[in-house]
Amino acid sequence: MSPMPDPFTIRIFVPDGDPEGVRLIDRMNWTGLGVVFPRAKWSDVRQRAEMLRTGVYILVGYTEQDDDLPTVYVGQTDDLRSRIDSHCAKKDFWDWGVVFVSNNSGGLNRAHVTWLEYALVKRATEAARCHLDNNNAPQEPGLSEAEKADTRAFLKEIVQILPLVGLRVFETPKAVAVPRAADPSIVTPPRTKRPDTIIVPAQREGFVQVFLGQNCWHAIRIAGGMLDKIKYVAGYQTHPTSAITHYAPVAAIEPYGEEGKYKLIFSEKAKAIGPIPYGDAPPGAMQGPRYTTFEKLRGATTLKDLLVRDCPEHH
């Protein structure tokens, strides 16, 4: 059993009174300071004294409007003002940024922030929750044993703060639900009238590559009350197939991206079913995920047979 994390308090100061604007973040007994700012406020933020210090910074945005994962750039510099000025001119994707600097004159130096950049890029790569705009993975710089211990402590503060400002790309996803259907010995689950299966629409290419090839499906919006009830996922292939063709038991449900979506991880490869055609289902019935029961899925002849109505969990 892993130890419980230590409780902590952060302080957020909003200098211009706008909670969506610039925010200064610090913690008791911490030598660092975080500055979170929207891109539109950079012309004001760049005048702050912190922007002349050595620091590590993260730029966040979306490359395409319909991207499910954010794009992130991690960098370090001796002169935050000049470096981020350059990114304003050359990088269009980012909407907001956060910088971390030392609060005292003997704090972070170039070696420290180079190590922080290395560690953050490594964490983001391993977590796979964003698109990294960094072209190359930085190499770990040499630090003394004492310097590395201090810099690791600074990194710990950073990764505890970032989720509180809406950035979780440096955290390995943790399952929010572990359905009992993950047990492959459950061949015939007990009958239930409550929805336990989610039907997801998918285009042919993504369906073959991810649903069948990676044994998962992601970027799904799921009602909070359904998270601990979903045990199976059925894949509906859109036009020209226009039918449910496969299903799989769900082993775990994890957060995906920063927009309240989820990833379903299968406990085994998807199996063919049906196909169960769209038939006379109402127009637009599969523009998004739908819920049903596994019992209905096994007996359905058309999609209309599966659509659950008037279920408490569906409202």
Extended strand count? 14
Share in helix: 10-25%
Give the biggest beta sheet.
Answer: 7 strands, mixed
Order of helices and strands: EEEHEEHEHEHEHEEEEEEH
Bulk shape: elongated
How many H/I helical runs? 6
Give the DSSP E fraction (strand runs of 2 or more residues).
25-35%
Structural class: alpha+beta
The low-pLDDT segments are 310-315
User: Major sheet: order of its strands?
Assistant: 1-2-3-6-4-5-7
User: What is the average per-residue confidence, as pLDDT, rounded to a whole number?
Assistant: 90
Tally of distinct domains: 2
Brief descriptors of the model:
alpha+beta; 7-stranded mixed beta sheet; 2 domains; 315 residues; disordered C terminus; Archaeosine Trna-guanine Transglycosylase, Chain: A, domain 4; Excinuclease ABC, C subunit domain protein
Architecture overview:
This is Excinuclease ABC, C subunit domain protein. The protein is of the alpha+beta class. The protein has 2 domains: 10-165, no CATH class; 180-314, Archaeosine Trna-guanine Transglycosylase, Chain: A, domain 4. Helices cover 21% and strands 28% of the residues. A 7-stranded mixed β-sheet has the order 1-2-3-6-4-5-7, covered by helices on one side. Strands 8, 9, 10, 11, 12, 13 and 14 form a 7-stranded mixed β-sheet that branches. Helix 3 packs across helix 4. The radius of gyration is 24 Å and the shape is elongated. Residues 310-315 have low confidence and may be disordered.
